[in-house]
Amino acid sequence: MELSPELLKKVKLLEIQTRKLVNSLFAGEYHSAFKGQGMTFSDFREYVPGDDVRNISWSLTARANKPYIKKYDEERELTLMIAVDVSGSGEFGSRGLLKKDVIAQMAALLSFSAVKNNDRIGLLLFSDVVEHFVPPKKGRGHVHRILRDILFFEPRSNKTKLSVAFEHLRHVLRKKTNIFLFSDFLDQGYDQSLRFLAKKHDTVAVIVEDFYEKQFPKLGLIEFEDAETGEKVVVDTSDPVFQKNYSLRSQENFKRRESELKKANVDRVTVKTNEDFVTPLIQYFKARNRS
Description:
Layout: H1 5-33, E1 39-46, H2 58-64, E2 68-74, E3 79-85, H3 99-116, E4 120-126, E5 130-137, H4 140-152, H5 162-172, E6 178-183, H6 191-200, E7 202-209, E8 221-225, E9 232-236, H7 240-264, E10 267-272, H8 278-290
């Protein structure tokens, strides 16, 4: 499907915003963090002291009467899958960007880095159902399609069920894939399905959170609408009882999330809507390279 001029302009703007980062530092970190699937023979060259003697080609050495070794190149082609929680909570953001905007920019960074490394990129959008799936392919045009879908897709549901997405990925991804899961992970009962997914695939949970989810300011009477259920209620945010209950519920949600992710035993990157989201990713990639 062709992009309309308006949509193309927004996608191009997102590309421009991320291009400098990709070209200057991010693509290199991406490349180093994700190794190829093996090594393949490419050519011969003369042996020099210090080369691994295990790579000597004895048949060619015998014919040429001097030692030659086999050269190998990394089989670089990888697959990157971006899985995005498009439930109603993605519309939340109190001090900086909305959660969905942070996700779009991070997805652009990863996707254009993958393109620079000639990797394939795919997309899964999910709520409490599988909303949209784009099989992995290569190319900048394909990335534009993925970013368009992240920016403008209208989900059928506002609710969240993470296990639905994890089970779907297990069934559709046949080869080992690098998966980035973008969500606030404020759900429960998904640790087993996530653990099974991570057994086969290199899986990273990218936790996108907002400051107000931990502590809400005292703003007087406010009408709240639950982004996932649509339920509305008017509360006095300055009321000490509200402040205490909000804090307790927040702590329960975050403890539940930490417990689920710890049981799943997956790598995690945490970003905030009002802070730099590039540095946490780079730090994660550097940590992978050291391990």
